[in-house]
Amino acid sequence: MMRAVLTLVFTVIVTILAVDASAATGDCSAAPATIGRFQPAAQSQAAPTVPFYDAAGKARTFADYPGQPLIVNLWATWCPPCVQEMPALDRLVELLRAERAAVLALSSDREGAPVVQRFFEVHAIRRLEILVDRKTAVTRALAAPGLPTTIVFDRNGRELGRVVGVAEWDAPETLAFLKRCLGGQP
Question: Beta strand pairing status for 149-153 and 159-164?
């Protein structure tokens, strides 16, 4: 009798923990065509600790965004597909505000923050923060095969998946997918 009760209690606890864990990160399968070639992470790896830099030259890391999902876009001003998707990424900042997700566009431009600032001014990019991946340290740490590459991290800093190439970041289908993937409601 006691063994049956303990087994039942154990089963209930495991079920509750499993439901709680699945609430932290949702379903990242069945990505819509608007998100391009999204590949769910085969193994959930932690975000790297290598620094990137803000407009003032201050070193930052992904740890500066505790408890926030991250949409990390690796790009450059000289990359036509990157330029194409940058306005949609800028709009995504506002669209994911309720999820407290941070959209981080890390430029690999060798000229650094000044060239990114000029690009943002010319293209009316107003919501994205100027961030620079000096010497492509983050790009290499994330093993990005090219630009643009966007990696989605959950609230615990674990990779959920990535897109290599262009995506329609502000499309309703993409937004619903990201919300579902990040554990929220579509």
Answer: antiparallel
